[in-house]
Amino acid sequence: MLYDHVDGLRERLAGRRTHALAGSPGEAAGTRQALVEREAVVRLYGRRTTQLNAAENALCFGRLDLEEGEQGPRYIGRIGLHRERPGATVDDEEPLLIDWRAPVARPFYLATAMHPDGVIRRRHIRTVGRRVVQLHDENLAGGTGAEPGSITSESALMTALTAARTGRMTDIVETVQAEQDRIIRSGPDGILVVQGGPGTGKTAVALHRAAYLLYHHREQLERRGVLIIGPNTTFLRYIAEVLPALGETGVMLATTGDLHPGVSPTRTDPGPVTALKGRLLMAGVMAGAVADRQWVPQDDDETVAVRHDGQLLRLDRQACLALRDRVRAARLLHNEARPLVHRLVVEELTRQWAQAVGADPLGGESLLGPEDLAMLRRELEENGDVDGVVDWLWPALTPTRLLRELFASPRRIRAACAQVGLTQAEQDLLEREGNGWSEADVPLLDEAAELLGRDDSAARRLAEELQTANLEYAQGVLDLLRGSESGDFEDEESEILAAFDLVTAQDLVERQEEADHRTAAERAATDRTWRFGHIVVDEAQELSPMAWRMLMRRSRSMTLVGDVAQTGDPAGASSWHQALAPHVGDRWRLEQLTVNYRMPAPVAKVTAGLLESLAPGLPAPEPVRHDGPTPWRRRVAPGALAAELAGAVRAELATLGQDRRLAVVAAPGRAAGLFAVLKPLMTEGVALGQDPDDDVPARVVVLEPRETKGLEFDAVVVVEPERIATSSPRGPGDLYVALTRATQRLGVLHCAQLPQGLDGPWWSE
Ligand SMILES: Nc1ncnc2c1ncn2[C@@H]1O[C@H](COP(=O)(O)OP(=O)(O)OP(=O)(O)O)[C@@H](O)[C@H]1O
Question: Where does the UvrD-like helicase ATP-binding domain lie (predicted)?
């Protein structure tokens, strides 16, 4: 019945869309307003159809039977559906399916036998396509007993947790747990931090929270947009299908490296450089770099000069210093101060000129009156040399130019750091050759953009050029139509009105301008200053202080999820207080997730040992699955590692069975070598890859620890953990990440001793 209802809705929407596209006849038809309205209506129908399509799988997954006296039963699903009754108001419409995010759906996630909340039975409905294949009932009212063969929602959860991993994250809407539900439904205001160990569902919760907030605050959030920040593009691909499956599109997914429109990081900085660029004092370095570009002559002999009407007018060091002080006192952003610089230069030159030509040879008052001076000023304003002087003293700067020229010059670096107190060795780290930007440069570019402000003159010029180009293009289109007319029509048909009889090029351009119907996310992607309605940051522990500074400009409504024990970035945080205090003091709230949904208990035990040495006192999440295979470890001679690895992977695949995926994780720099070792597997029909980003994820992937961040696999084989732990100052955190990716099986191959915390009785040999 529900699917029939959806089909009917889809059909009606398609009909209305076609009707809207055809346009309504009448006086207003063809006006700009009618076009805009039509576009809006068509987009609305399109969005609604997308939502209906997204809900096709597992449209309805739950049912609540309520105590007598309550209405019921309630069916819970991915979207809300109502039976429309002619003449009924929205409130009277009969609910057929309740959106999982609606308040009345909440008992589906929260009701327990202890606190049934009016629910006597909770039913999980499993469907394949449009067919119901399984029902799981939980009787929450005492005495009724479960129906034979029924299982509890714990079983529905277990089914989800033990399913084969596909390489893409799926939603958890059918089995959200109480502690997760509370976070998902918490209000949007302020900054919410969700701390939880590996596999506690932080990513899942963050994405469902985004869907929940969009549902309850749709108008505001669709206007301002929701931004989801992840640690790398691999991770973003991994999570990309969750929100569309929940019917929510139009959310912007990005890394912090994507936040400066026009810049795509391609460069990898060494760890110490990343760490330095992430420090808050870089804000001072950027301010110093801008100040350094507000130039004055270095000694008293040096001047800048303007030739005017045969006279050479000069600004010496003292004049330039005075001018710079006056401009700085106005506290304008660098580029926005340029008109003031221009005005003051003209003022000074006018003064000098008046002195030169208007001086009374007899020593009396100037011979020039106010009108002469005004004329002089106007002449100087139009003198191109003055523009040159302004460019010299106070150049128009883009953030990229400022940084490129800064990093290319030891002198500029020294000047920029003068007030900040970086050692010479640290200053040397900033120097670099070649082009290209790194992720750590992006917050610096953002900082620079804040200090520089806009240079409106260039933007205005560009807008004018664009307008002229558009007009020319539109005129060209009309000319083309006119040109193709004569041969095509017979005499009597040439009476027919053509487009060029009805519209001018200007009309066409205006119509194009109105046709910008991009979503907030699309517009935000091209606007550095866009303020989002809400920002979700996943793996938030990885952000540097400078990256936090950049993000805080984009919104103060945030959900930050992460685990300070998993920090891998050299500039990342070791505590939430350390990360947030410089930006928002203690104005943030903390929620914790405590249940480990990913790893079975035997794997969790191994990783808990490492956690204790990594972050003493941080509790290890409690695994929800108590059984599972015991992790294995095998110590091998260095020469035998390659052969042992190939054998171990073969054995793991055989144990796992078809459709299950495995990751081999090794220290940075070793993945390529191990990939070569495993290549023969390909001749055995095993898809092998080095990129979890592949369109069709390979069955076996060889990765470095940081590439596995946020991902999970049915089985994981970690090669030489000691080498991972010692590969960088954040090595132990990287090892912890690698070991916590397995949903079923974990194995370790090692030549050296196991690192501290990992050596224990929990392994099978
Ligand atoms: N309530 C739930 N129902 C079903 N599956 C769940 C639930 N909560 C979490 N999971 C599953 O547990 C796994 C781990 O979740 P997720 O990746 O969100 O954890 P995480 O805390 O972000 O982990 P990490 O910090 O290691 O990246 C995923 O497969 C997720 O789908």
Answer: 175-600
Question: How far apart are alpha carbons 154 and 138 in whole angstroms?
Answer: 10
Q: What is the DSSP letter of 438?
A: B
Question: Which residue has its alpha carbon closest to ligand 1 atom 8?
Answer: 201
What sign does the dihedral 458-459-464-466 (CA atoms) show?
A: positive
Tokens of 256: 């912090």
DSSP state of 294: S
Return the residue matching tokens 């053509």: 498
How remote is the CA of residue 235 from the centroid of ligand 1, in Å? 14
198 annotated as a binding-site residue: yes
Mutate to test the pocket of ligand 1, among 158, 161, 559, 593 (most ligand atoms within 8 A of CB): 161
Q: 180: Cβ below 6 Å to ligand 1?
A: yes
Closest among 307, 332, 474, 311 to 384, alpha carbons compared: 307
Atom 1 in ligand 1: which residue has the minimum CA distance?
176
- The angle subtended at Cα 148 by Cα 144 and Cα 150, nearest 5°, is 90
The residue whose CA has the least distance to atom 14 of ligand 1 is 199
Contact call for residues 568 and 232 (beta carbons, < 8 A): no
Number of the ligand 1 atom closest to the C-alpha atom of 737:
26
CA 193, CA 564: separation in Å to the nearest integer?
11
Asked if 34 contacts 5 with a C-beta cutoff of 8 angstroms, the reply is no
**Ligand 1 atom at minimum distance from 175 CA:** 3
Distance 597 CA to ligand 1 centre (A): 6
Tokens 């005075």 locate to 322
Instruction: Name 623's Cβ contacts closer than 8 Å, sequence gap at least 6.
Output: 595, 596, 599, 600, 601, 603, 604
Residue nearest atom 26 of ligand 1, based on CA coordinates:
198
pLDDT confidence tier of residue 290, bands split at 50, 70 and 90: very high
Please give the DSSP secondary-structure letter assigned to residue 403. H
Long-range contacts, stretch 510-517, CB < 8 angstroms, 24+ apart = 510/32, 511/32, 511/35, 512/470, 512/474, 514/32, 514/35, 514/36, 515/35, 515/39, 517/39, 517/40, 517/43
- Is the Cβ atom of 172 under 6 angstroms away from ligand 1? yes
- Is the pLDDT at 651 greater than 90, yes or no? yes
Give the C-alpha separation, 662 to 289, whole Å.
49
The pLDDT tens digits of the residues spanning 163-201 come to 888 888 989 989 999 899 999 999 999 999 999 999 999
Nearest-CA residue for ligand 1 atom 27 is 710
Given a cut of 60, is residue 150 above it in pLDDT? no
Task: Tell me whether the omega of the peptide bond preceding residue 73 falls within 30 degrees of 0, making it cis.
Answer: yes
Asked if residue 714 has its Cβ within 6 Å of ligand 1, the reply is: no
Query: Model pTM?
Result: 0.84
Rounded Cα distance between 416 and 290, Å, is: 8
The tally of CA atoms less than 13 A away on the side-chain side of residue 368 is 18
Is 80 exceeded by the pLDDT of residue 229? Answer: yes
pLDDT over 60 (residue 458): no
Instruction: Starting at the earlier edge strand, list the strands of the sheet with 119-128.
Output: 81-83, 94-99, 74-77, 60-66, 119-128, 131-139
Rounded Cα–Cα distance for residues 340 and 453 (Å): 14
If you measure from the C-alpha of residue 459 to the centroid of ligand 1, how many angstroms do you get, rounded to a whole number? 46
| Pocket-testing residue among 200, 241, 541, 611, ligand 1, by greatest number of atoms within 8 A of Cβ | 200
- Substitution candidate for ligand 1 out of 153, 172, 182 with most atoms within 8 A of CB: 172
